[in-house]
Design goal:
two-stranded parallel sheet; four-stranded antiparallel sheet; single chain; alpha+beta; 2 domains
């Protein structure tokens, strides 16, 4: 069907459209969402230009999939020409404890709040399918559901729909629900009246910008992913650049600093969905236990978790950097055991960790290992660890 000639079943009256929106909101709340609003498919006409600018500056880092999908991301109509309305939904995942408090426990790991239990993609997609099915059964028309993994720009669409505004930390902020929000969308061929876009309420506040440990914000409302700890620990597949390792502290998967600093979180509530409430063993897990993980142990521990997607080697890379920042001599032995790991990514991080936990004499006694190293990145780690100036 063409946009100029909609299916008669989808040409509904304003009164019926209003009833459908009320039905959607009631059903969404019953399914665990905290808010719902509607945007038109052409609500962000400048998005293509903004995406191109971001990529042109190289701020997407190694996320080539983002550069490759600019055209599809720029408009819901490019992704699905028949879409008439975009129903945006938010689900709260607020923590019951201050996630910043764990940063002081240097022998323990900090895992981003969103990754402390089940993978939110699976939870939200299942709820979206339920809601979309109920809506389609009542309204007719076609529906498609999306949550993060498809080339849909959820945050601009959520802002256009009025769920909140994109704050200076480039994440969505809601006056009613704060910053701890997962987003999902339902595209439909039914025409619903769009809601009013939210206005910016950040004012002169710089809390999110000032707390960032790696200065990942070149300016308010701009982010350089290459400097962001979430990118460095999750998307980045190679060694973490040395300039950011100390700033990572004990963060082994993601970073919550800018979200946690937002004063609008005074309106946030603790997640109501049980599968989003933190597992006890992921609130402040000891680094020592993770250092012993082989691939099977990693997969077993993180079954159903978003952490599983980075794989054991990247995960151990992050844990070793945290160990190197811990100052805990009890971690020397498990780190040394990883010097002979099969993964060069892990071996390189182990060298860095040991060079920070010990000293030149200790590293000198391990120097024989450097002579047989085949990987160039690992040889560079040895060179830096054994140089007089150190790291």
């Amino acid at each position: 069907m063409s946009r100029s000639d909609p299916d008669p079943a989808e040409a509904i009256t304003d009164a019926r459209a209003g009833r459908l929106k009320a039905f959607l909101k009631a059903e969404a709340l019953a399914l665990g969402f905290c808010d719902l609003a509607v945007a038109g498919p052409d609500a962000s006409p400048d998005l293509h230009q903004r995406l191109e600018h971001f990529v042109a500056l190289g701020r997407h880092g190694s996320m080539d999939w983002l550069a490759d999908t600019i055209d599809r991301r720029a408009s819901p109509l490019t992704l699905w020409p028949e879409v008439r309305s975009v129903i945006m939904l938010a689900m709260n995942y607020g923590p019951d404890l201050d996630p910043l408090a764990n940063l002081a426990r240097r022998s323990n790991a900090s895992v981003s709040v969103y990754a402390r239990n089940r993978d939110y993609h699976d939870i939200i997609k299942g709820r979206l399918k339920q809601l979309a099915g109920r809506f389609a059964a009542r309204a007719g028309g076609d529906v498609k559901v999306f949550v993060d993994t498809a080339p849909v720009m959820e945050k601009p669409l959520a802002e256009a729909a009025g769920l909140g505004w994109i704050g200076k930390h480039t994440n969505l902020v809601s006056r009613s629900h704060g910053s701890w929000l997962f987003l999902g969308s339902i595209f439909t061929t039914i025409e619903l009246a769009p809601d009013t876009a939210e206005t910016d309420h950040c004012g002169s506040c710089r809390a999110c910008l000032d707390i960032c440990p790696t200065d990942a914000f070149p300016a308010p409302y701009q982010i350089d992913a290459r400097r962001c700890i979430s990118y460095l620990t999750i998307e980045n597949k190679g060694p973490v650049p040395r300039e950011f390792r100390r700033a990572m502290g004990n963060r082994i998967y993601g970073c919550d600093d800018c979200l946690a600093a937002c004063p609008w979180n005074k309106y946030a509530v603790v997640a109501s969905e049980a599968k989003l409430i933190a597992r006890d063993d992921l609130i402040s897990p000891p680094l020592a236990g993770f250092l012993a993980f082989d691939d099977a142990a990693f997969r077993a521990f993180f079954t159903g978790s978003p952490v599983k997607r980075i794989g054991r080697d990247r995960f151990l890379r992050n844990v070793l950097i945290a160990a190197g920042n811990s100052g805990d001599p009890a971690l020397v032995a498990p780190c040394e055991g990883l010097l002979s790991d099969a993964s060069p990514l892990v071996r390189g991080a182990a060298i860095w960790a040991l060079s920070n936990l010990t000293g030149p004499d200790y590293m000198g006694r391990l120097a024989a290992r450097a002579s047989g190293e085949a990987d160039e990145d690992v040889r560079e780690e040895w060179r830096m660890a054994l140089s007089p100036s150190g790291d």
